[in-house]
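[Q] Does anyone have a clean structure-token version of this?
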Amino acid sequence: MTGPRFEARPWGSFTVLDDTETHKVKSMTVNPGHRLSYQRHQQRAEHWFVVIGSATVTIDDREYTVEQGEHIDIPTMAWHRIENRGDTDLIFVEVQHGAYFGEDDIERRADDYGRA
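[A] Here you go.
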């Protein structure tokens, strides 16, 4: 990888900070009132660390609140999403680990933006 790569999404944005054969690291911003799709991955697990804000995280239909400075792990094949119910940006760091990190390893079950 040559440097950070920024990508805008309907729910906010992410910047890829590191992308190797063994892991990928992203800084992710979720705009107030938005959430990512309810999705799972066959080839990777994820670790989320909340830097700013409060996240509502759903894993296999169980809801968790993850506050600033806290973290949560997403196992491979677990249905998951993160939501920002606050009124300021939610920023978290995502560390992906596993066999493959491509955006095409996303199976969506529900999506607010018509991508499911």
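[Q] Thanks! Anything notable?
[A] The domain at 5-107 is CATH 2.60.120.10 (Jelly Rolls).
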